[in-house]
């Protein structure tokens, strides 16, 4: 190892900040530099579509740490600087002002970037994407005088913005290209539940349709769809997902596919170079996956930091988890179910309190909890232990406690 006496973290979001804090908690004494292209102190992103957007939280309340945390812990913030090139042999990163920073260990936690909608009219005023605090502030300003808003995409961001706008009394139209919201993640039955939830709260949800044009002379006035439908509005939010930005490693020997490939210790194929969060492709039950959620970014970064300080000491084996708050519903999800061969419902859809299991080969690969948090811990244990259910329907028996329904048979 070189003697630069510095650990460098590229990306000051949830992953990067938690890695820096963990390094100090683990006892690392030398310099930690946290690099980020944005100028803001690290802040929490989930409130941007909820409490911060509605005005219930202010800028100080969404900070991940207090402003004095960084000086108190000798963490050097290098903000408003983009990392543009890595030299793995010399162990240095070049910044957009041509300065270079050397490292002993490097963590790449660059997150993801928004996927842009390529149709005419997206350059008009009052057309929004939602990724940063600045995005949320601009949208919040528009909502003060907005009567009708169109949201393109019924994913989690679009759904949360729709719920926030309805709370403010704004007329909301959501356009979703799929037959049901979140169909690719949750399937049709849960997609129908989410669709009904939005419609029952006054959202005009349009499915199996997509936007083809935004019209207006200077500001957006209408959204036109592929069927010729024209929807008047004073603002538009585009939420069609995110994509990777791997430009930083393109000309390096760091292995990447749909993400930066890391092992169970969050280390890349280059010794001393780690990755965590949205950008990392990591081993999970025999496959390589990438997860774009808050909980994952936090936990994987903590594991990466521990292995940066004490190599190969802690494996990352956390079950993916995310949550979303919409209207009177708290959604929680565990697992990573790309496909499944059966499902089981436990509880009542009508009462909006249930757990919906996704199974493959009689094992739980994912579970959606709707206002049903008590089941999260035992189900996490079932997934972690690869528990086999000889009769999966027993999961739906509410007369038995969920932690008591598993067979003793496991396949670890």
UniProtKB/TrEMBL annotation:
Alphabetical UniProt keywords: FAD, Flavoprotein, Oxidoreductase
Known cofactor(s): FAD
All copies of domain FAD/NAD(P)-binding, residue ranges: 6-301
GO CC term (a single one): cytoplasm
Domain of life (superkingdom): Bacteria
Pfam families for this protein: Pyr_redox_2, Reductase_C
Domain Reductase C-terminal: from-to ranges: 321-405
GO MF annotation terms: oxidoreductase activity, acting on NAD(P)H
Protein name, UniProt field: Ferredoxin reductase
Organism, scientific name: Oceanobacillus zhaokaii
